[in-house]
Write a structure and sequence with these properties.
The complex is a heterodimer of chains A (364) and B (308). Chain A has 364 residues and is an alpha/beta fold. Chain A is built from 15 helices and 4 strands. In chain A, helix 11 packs antiparallel against helix 14. In chain B, the strands form 3 sheets. Chain B has a 6-stranded mixed beta sheet, with helices on both faces. In chain B, strands 2-1-4-5 form a 4-stranded antiparallel beta sheet, covered by helices on one side. In chain B, strands 12-13-11-14 form a 4-stranded antiparallel beta sheet, with helices on both faces. In chain B, a hairpin with a 2-residue loop joins strand 12 and strand 13. The chains are: A alpha/beta (364), B alpha/beta (308).
């Protein structure tokens, strides 16, 4: 039994690694993903492009503009003098934020009459608009408090685990879960469907090879490659993006193995649906996209409608994301993560068993 | 394992929905014989072979291969057969040697025999100097022999070959039949399908299958004598296609054989002149006419047309 699996695994590795495009997919795409998600997919809001219309032209109004600029969150692009120039700038998306200081602002301020500043915000991207509005408030609040000074509020907020609120810290560990899923889906389903397309599966089926041996031999190579990719992404995260890993790497490896049960199982399942390699890729992405959206990868599950929240319980990605982020950022151990691990194992066991049964049926 | 027959089937049937691909076939293949399974494309040849190899399950009927039951002992059957299809199912990205390694591993060729078996394949396929080339760079004939070699690395006593010579040049085809004869000489049973009638003469015994049913069986010479009540006239004419149509319109059974037209006649001697007359009236000249022994193709054409 072991002998046949060994030969199948060797053959799979030769086929995978001899193909230049496959090599790129397996080892370069993951690195690109880390970089794209590490740099580009960030929720951090800084340098909001801002336009200022200062009708007051006083030292007070200039001080306010200076404070916006020096806060680091706003980049003041233009200082306009006319109202009607503003709307086209917002329409075309050239600016996100417009600050308008009316004439007489400083005079009223000096007389102690409440004065107002108008802020227009492009709400197309609601998330960014909310965050930027928050920054506007904090800049103005500081200006408004006595002697431009100290915050007397009794609240002290301390942020744990990711004190600088870096999106990178949140995104990069998540990439591991995406890469492992995508790689196992594509490699498993493609390697089986290709054999069916070319006709070699028939040749295998007249040999004494057993379906179990075929399943094991077909899933070991993608599993090993996924482990390699997991380590690759972790290294890039640690040394390039300075993402902390506070928990145990061994626990991460163990959880990856549990997670692989589900992802390889789904890959096996796709191979039973698809007749051609194109169909396999189509099916992979049809599954992959909603799986990301319903995982908590980018948007919190708690904000979803109840029905979708229930759906996420069937998504292995959901549990693995909690585990990965817990290990990287919070240093969680087995004592905290065991429920996720148990759920992930249960789900993986079910998916893998059902897919294997279906796979065996498809062979005959 | 002492039975006389390598393959024995009774009432074997395969239905795909409403379509009956194989319809209650009975046949027996003796050990050590080259058994030819003949028929046009879609007649049910491949379906029958696939049922015997355990690739698909029959709808009904029974059978044994190498003494093992096709319903209950597919695993034992797989240890005792080699199967090669017209697709020459090799791994194209892998080299010749890697393919041989792979299949010898899958077939569990014993360690002490591995080296000798691998060398045997390289030698049999005459592929020694290409052993490190990827299979996709090989010519059809080489691929065909390599596919055969990989299919019988484990020295099975029964070998199934499904259209093994399709898509291969004539010289390679002839070489391949020499290999088949050698294997039969070593006592192996070879079950081969083909739609090339000229190859059928290499078989010891033949079964003709048409639309899922067996329509004739016997040795090549038995088929010629017992199924052919007619004489065959071979005509050499300028426009064989036109001549064939004219003769068919006149109610005769005519078929194309290369450059010549074959006509089956009750008696060559009495009908010879009539054919000349028919063609002359149509403005065609006969360059030659002679009585020939029926080929298997003639037999097949007569049998099939008799059923349509």
């Amino acid at each position: 039994m072991g002998e046949r699996i060994r030969h199948l695994v060797i053959k799979e590795f030769i086929q995978l690694l001899r193909d230049r495009r496959m090599r790129a997919f397996l080892f370069i795409v993951p690195v690109i993903q880390v970089f794209v998600l590490g740099y580009a997919a960030t929720f951090d809001v800084n340098s909001v492009s801002t336009v200022v219309i200062d009708f007051d032209r006083s030292s007070e109004s200039r001080e306010i503009i200076r404070r916006f600029t020096s806060s680091g969150y706003f980049s003041v692009k233009a200082n306009l003098t006319e109202d009607r120039e503003v709307i086209p700038l917002l329409d075309k998306g050239k600016t996100l934020c417009v600050i308008e200081i009316e004439k007489g602002f400083s005079e009223r301020l000096r007389k102690g009459i409440p004065s107002e500043i108008q802020v227009l915000m492009d709400g197309t991207d609601s998330n960014t608009a909310m965050i930027a509005t928050g920054y506007v408030h904090s800049v103005l609040k500081k200006y408004g408090s006595p002697k431009g000074g100290t915050d007397k509020s009794p609240f002290r907020t301390r942020i744990w685990y990711n004190p600088d609120l870096r999106s990178k810290n949140y995104m990069v560990p998540g990439v591991i879960s995406l890469i492992v899923m995508l790689t196992s889906l594509i490699v498993t389903s493609m390697s089986i469907v290709r054999e069916r397309e070319v006709g070699t599966i028939e040749q295998l089926m007249v040999t004494p090879i057993k379906p179990v041996e075929l399943i094991v031999g077909k899933t070991i190579p993608p599993a090993l490659i996924c482990f390699f990719d997991m380590i690759l992404v972790t290294i890039v995260g640690l040394f390039w993006f300075n993402i902390p890993i506070r928990g145990s790497f061994l626990l991460l490896a163990l959880c990856t193995a549990i997670y692989l049960l589900s992802t390889l199982g789904i890959g096996l399942f796709i191979s039973t649906l698809a007749k051609t390699q194109q169909q396999a890729i189509m099916a992979t992405f049809l599954f992959f996209q909603p799986a990301i959206l319903l995982s908590g990868f980018a948007t919190p599950i708690e904000n979803m409608p109840q029905v979708f929240q229930y759906l996420t319980y069937l998504n292995p990605l959901r549990y693995f994301l909690v585990i990965v982020r817990g290990i990287f950022l919070k240093g969680n151990g087995f004592d905290i993560l065991w429920t996720e691990m148990a759920m992930l194992f249960l789900l993986g066991f079910l998916i893998f068993t059902l897919s294997s049964v279906r796979f065996r049926k498809r062979l005959n | 394992m002492v039975d006389e027959y390598a393959v024995e089937i009774k009432g074997l049937t395969k239905k795909f929905g409403d379509f009956t691909a194989v319809d209650r076939i009975d046949l027996k293949v003796r050990r050590g014989e080259i058994f030819g399974f003949l028929g046009p494309n879609g007649a049910g040849k491949s379906t029958t072979i696939k049922m015997l190899c355990g690739l698909i399950m029959p709808s009904s009927g029974s059978g044994t291969v190498g003494g093992f039951d096709i319903w209950t002992e597919p695993e034992e059957i797989k240890m005792n057969i080699g199967y090669m299809s017209q697709r020459f199912s090799l791994y194209e990205e892998l080299t010749v040697m890697e393919n041989i390694d792979f299949f010898s591993g899958i077939y569990n060729v014993p360690r002490n025999k591995k080296k000798q078996r691998k060398a045997w394949v390289l030698n049999m396929a005459q592929i020694e100097e290409k052993k490190d080339h990827p299979v996709k760079t090989l010519a059809g004939g080489l691929k065909q022999r390599l596919a055969l070699g990989c299919a019988i690395l484990h020295e099975p006593p029964i070998i199934f070959l499904d259209e093994p010579t399709s898509g291969v040049d004539p010289l390679s085809r002839r070489n391949f039949w020499r290999l088949i004869e050698e294997m039969a000489g070593e006592g192996k049973t070879v079950f081969v399908t083909t739609h090339y009638m000229d190859e059928a003469d290499n078989c010891h015994r033949l079964v003709l299958i048409h639309r899922g049913k067996i329509i004739a069986e016997g040795t090549p010479s038995e088929l010629r004598s017992s199924y052919m009540k007619f004489d065959i006239a071979e005509l050499l004419v300028d426009q064989p296609f036109v001549a064939m149509d004219i003769l068919r319109d006149a109610g005769l059974e005519a078929s194309l054989h290369g450059e010549t037209v074959h006509v089956s006649l009750e008696s060559y001697e009495s009908c010879q002149d009539e054919i000349g007359r028919i063609l002359k009236n149509a403005g065609l000249t006969i360059k030659g006419i002679e009585k020939v022994p029926p080929s298997l193709e003639d037999v097949f054409v007569t049998l099939v047309e008799g059923r349509e």
